[in-house]
């Protein structure tokens, strides 16, 4: 089961919102990370298309969108993603997750990580099972909510 991490020190009152209501509120999804090789860049591209095919609006971190030659309207600075998205998927290692969480903390936005690093403590989704885990999280609401950045 995927972990969704709260990017801020403020606990979201989940008692007021059922988990299935929370996952149904994920309409605009941010895609972030810092791909260091072609394999990681391809993962960003694949996840982007997977989300688009399922009807999500996707905002991609500007540098990644440019490398992937995605439509200009999908590219956004991380701060813009924080303002507009309901969830951010970070592809990379724990360092990428921590860096993105630091910037996104002021927007109180949940993060989910696909591990492309070594440890995978914060980015716990295995890339080999990424789509099944994303589907379980986004479409069926199967995830754990953890506030690890407070």
UniProtKB/TrEMBL annotation:
InterPro entries associated with the record: ATP-NAD_kinase_N, NAD/diacylglycerol_kinase_sf, NADK
Entry keyword annotation includes Kinase: yes
Record keywords: Kinase, Transferase
Top-level taxon of origin: Bacteria
EC number of the protein: 2.7.1.23
Molecular function per GO: ATP binding; NAD binding; NAD+ kinase activity
Keyword Calcium set for record: no
GO biological process entries: NADP+ biosynthetic process
Coiled-coil regions, chain positions: none
Protein name (Swiss-Prot/TrEMBL): Inorganic polyphosphate/ATP-NAD kinase
Lineage: Bacteria, Pseudomonadati, Pseudomonadota, Gammaproteobacteria, Pasteurellales
Gene from which the chain derives: ppnK_2
